Structure formats: structure tokens, C-alpha cells
Amino acid sequence: MQEKRPVLFSGIQPSGNLNIGNYIGAIRNWNKLQFDYDCLFSLVDLHTITVRQDPEELRKRCYDFLSLYIACGIDPKNNILFVQSHVPQHAELAWILNCYTYMGELSRMTQFKDKSQKAGKNINVGLFDYPVLMAADILLYDTKVVPVGADQKQHIELARDVALRFNKNYGDVFTIPEPFIPKAKEGARIMGLQEPEQKMSKSDPNASNVIALLDDPKVLTKKIKRAVTDSGGEVCLADDKPGISNLLTIFSAVTDTSIEQLEADYRDVGYGKFKGDLAEAVVAFLEPIQQKFHAFRDDTTELDKILRHGAERARERADKMLRKVRDVVGFIKG
Which of 115, 225, 320, 324 does the annotation list as catalytic? Predict the structure, then answer.
């Protein structure tokens, strides 16, 4: 009998444009983890609408992101790929968990504070309650492992606290999730090209700051050649050289070459040659991904089939958990 694999859940908001940072920091690791874990990868569109969205653009991005997941190596036959809003149990469990989450816990969330500063007048309840929905996403599937960056660790801690509080009242209902934070090399934090002290963001309004996975090669080359570097011309990794350090990290990731080797290769060469070679390496790395993307993206019928099948599998699992939750809290069976 085959041993049951632990469950892994991860979700990305279908907002903005997936970039090289998303690939290096998340999707690359999903590719490795999909063979060792029972994986669910979700397009968390319910989270996305905490910020106003254009409906047609949101739908388009969901298809774009799904196609990129597959083009980057995520196998829809061996993993569950689905859109969050297709599984209504996420929203129902979030409401129940709201009743086991304290206002003080949510008010301490650093991401809420950061996002509120950017939201203008649209500081909505969903933005405040976002971490509870994230907890529901995770706890709904008996998730054991959640790959996250360091900036999301606080949300996983909240999910653990809520699960432990619920279990204390009702027994072992929820599996207590663990964050999976990749080693520095595997989950490298990619920074902006123009602002190398800020993380590269898929929602950045400044396109020059981001290497999007679907960037045209000419556009991409221009962005890299114009990327901010540092004083002096030495190609080396150093705390006081955030620009060139970031470019070295990207070069290392797309060529699978150690930073030490790259430093040796580009010693006394200067930034111009280094940036030119980096641009060529990134173009070569993204070319097969872009080709596969267009092949998948042009077949909306097949994408709908993948999402429909993924939602059916996710709903079946989610319903088992929700029936258990409804029962322990005392709801009458429907």
C-alpha cells in the first residue's frame, strides 16, 4: 500500500503579472515539491477583490496564471489546480473561523498595516479579514505544509493559533500546518530592477522594475540593461551593493550557476558586459516557458476542463472537512 503523502497548499492572487521573482521564489519550488507532496495550487481570486479589479481583466489573468503554472512545469494531472471562488467551502469556513479569531490578532497583522497605507479610501473589511480566509484556505484540506516567503509567516502563525484554539474546544478537527520557507538559495528574494531594496512585485505600477515572465525579449533586454547597479564596477555579492547583488541572484537562478562562479567569471569585466549576458540568459530561460504558455493559453476549452476537474476534486475534499466542522459546532445536518 502506497504511503499517503502529506498535503501541501499554496495560492497566488491572480493580480498583476507573474514575474521572475514569483518563479524563483515560489513556482520553482512547487516544481520540486509536487513529487513529494499531495499538492493543491489555487488561484485565490477571493483574496484579489480586496482591491478593486476590472472584471474582464481578472478573468483573463486567471487563465494567464493557470497557463503559466503549467508552462513552468506544474502538472495538472498530478496536482489539483483550481480557482478559489469555484469552491464555496472556503468562504463558509472563513466565516466560522471568524468566530474563533480575535480582533487584536488581526489588528497586529503587519501586511494589513502596509496595505492600508496603499488602499486610499478602500480600507475594507475584506482587507482586514484577509488572514482568516487564508487560514480557511489552508485548514480546509488537512494541509501539513504551506510554502511561504518570510513576509507571509505571520499569516501561517495565525492559522496555527486559530486551528489550535478550535481543536482545544472540539478535538482534533484540523491538522496544524507548518510553514515551508525554502533555503535562501532556493527561495531567493528577488528585488526590483529600479528599486533593488524593495521586493519585485507582480502588482508594481512601474513596469521597468519587473521582469515579467511574458515580457517580449527586446523589452526584457532593455529593462535589464537599465537596471540600477551600484557605485564602482565590481561584480560581486555584497550588502552595500544591492543592485548588482540582485542581478547576480537572478543570473544564478536562471543558469543554475553558483554566485561564486559568476563572480569569478565577471571579475574585472564591468557591469555592461555582465548585464548584456544576463539579459541573454534570461531571454533563453523564458523562451520555452513563453512558447508553452501560448500553446496552453490558446486552448481555453482545455483550461476550463482543468479548472472544472480541479474544483470538483477540491470541493470533494473541502466538503468532508466542512461536514466535520459543522457537526462539531452543533449545526443541524442538511
Answer: 115
How many of the other CB atoms lie within 10 Å of CB of 266? 20
| Locus of grid cell 513556482 | 27
**Of 306, 307, 323, 314, residue with least CA distance to 38:** 314
pLDDT at 1 over 50: no
Q: Which candidate in 77, 183, 199, 223 is catalytic?
A: 199
Place of cell 544576463: 278
Note whether 263 and 235 are within 8 A (CB): yes
Is residue 113 part of the annotated active site? The answer reads no
Q: Which of 4, 113, 202, 222 is catalytic?
A: 202
Q: What's the rounded mean pLDDT across residues 304-319? A: 97
Told to judge if 60 belongs to the known catalytic residues of this protein, a careful annotator would answer: no
pTM of whole model > 0.70?
Answer: yes
* Mean pLDDT value across the chain: 92
Q: How many helices (H) and strands (E) does the chain have?
A: 14, 5
pLDDT band at 94 (very low <50, low <70, confident <90, very high): very high
- Single-letter residue type at 56: E
Strand-pair partners of 40: 9, 80
- Measured in degrees and rounded to the nearest 5, phi and psi for residue 191 equal -105, 170
- 266: part of which helix (H) or strand (E)? none
Contact predicate 65/179, CB 8 Å: no
- What single string gives the DSSP state of each residue in 48-93? HTTS---HHHHHHHHHHHHHHHHHTT--TTTSEEEEGGG-THHHHH
C-alpha distances in Å from residue 2, one per residue of 5, 114, 330? 9, 45, 36
**Active-site residue 4, yes or no?**
no
* 97 vs 119 pLDDT, higher one: 97
